[in-house]
Amino acid sequence: MTPDVNPKEDVWLVYDGECPVCKTYCKYIRIRAAVGNLHLVDARQPGELMDEITRLGLDIDQGMVLRFRDAIYYGSDAIHMLTLLSTPSGVFNRINYYVFSTQVGFKIFYPIGKAFRTLLLKLLGIRRIENLKKNSKTSVS
């Protein structure tokens, strides 16, 4: 029996569940079936993956986190990797691919999207997650 050369692996995407931009992105993004299953994790809910992200010093308010094949991708790298894992089906995924599949694309458009998200959250009165502050408060106690 030969080992599976290309086994399916699950993909974990950690995002802000109260952010309309993040929720919309997660609603429409689709990964290729050959990659595995996409699991969406709301960063506002406690869990082991959020604990790990905080231990690594990653500020979830500054970017999504993607876990794939024992690697952690953060911010624009997470979106870029997710784009490479995505299926080309659907208008959203095709646009996403053209915008974020190249370094030039994600270096230009990711900061614009992040700034829009920050402004929108402020306008809607949605509080930040502040996972790094929560960690420093529990470390001091």
UniProtKB/TrEMBL annotation:
This is DCC family thiol-disulfide oxidoreductase YuxK. It comes from the Bacteria. InterPro entries: DCC1-like (IPR007263). It holds the Pfam family DCC1-like.
